[in-house]
């Protein structure tokens, strides 16, 4: 089987996982820096999803790092299937969380400054944007691994 | 290749497509029955996405119906790949639309009756619920076709 850049065990995959960790953590930090997010269901949902996405990305980052730097791991069909399904679930969840947070921010922004002070609102927007980027990288990982699945 | 119930060209797939058409149309109707949805970005997004999902499901419903009732179509790898990718895009979009609509409805509900009269709010909630069901069926179609892809 040829190696596809971005699929499991390549350095491109390592970069994608690193990006996912960075963006998910940034999204979580921007949202959690004050306790106000608890008042809104969708912000809590975003925090929960990012709290799930970070350990998933870190695990796969470590496996990829092991495969790239120490010893090339054998690529098994079952392993790739689990990674593809996990990435798919994670990407669905992050897109859902990002979209619901973004729509609530949009509504709060329209409702006026009393509901959403400029500084806080900007931070929520940054958090949603980071969640979108994390979704995009997670989707990329999912599609690259999905692509090599038929050839295994 | 064995036939998998739910994959392209089977009667289970026909049922899934029919469900998608019914739920997407119901979601669109519940949202569009008054013109108030234009004021909210996420409601307009839901209407746009459902307006894309309906023709996609109808096309695949007709192809499936042809394959089941008239003449069994040959299953080509390229065709299944296009269907899987299309279903994936559609399911991402419907989940995003359903989530953003649901979170906005939740916020409007909390804001009080002036923003969201009980009757109108109930209809918006029904619309979001239908969009979730449509997403679920779309995901099922995507996964069934994805499953047969490696064996082609």
UniProtKB/TrEMBL annotation, chains A, B:
A Pfam family it matches: CASP_dom
Keyword Transferase: no
InterPro entries, sorted: CASP_dom (IPR006702), CASPL-5 (IPR045009)
Subcellular location per the Swiss-Prot or TrEMBL entry: Cell membrane
Membrane topology (UniProt): Multi-pass membrane protein
Transmembrane segments: 21-40, 46-67, 79-105, 125-149
Domain Casparian strip membrane protein, residue spans: 9-137
First-listed, main subcellular location of the protein, grouped into a coarse class: membrane
Top-rank taxon: Eukaryota
Cellular component terms per the entry's GO annotation: membrane; plasma membrane
Keyword Membrane on entry: yes
Keyword vocabulary terms for this entry: Cell membrane, Membrane, Transmembrane, Transmembrane helix
Assembly notes: Homodimer and heterodimers.
Family label: Belongs to the Casparian strip membrane proteins (CASP) family.
The protein's name: CASP-like protein
Organism lineage string: Eukaryota, Viridiplantae, Streptophyta, Embryophyta, Tracheophyta
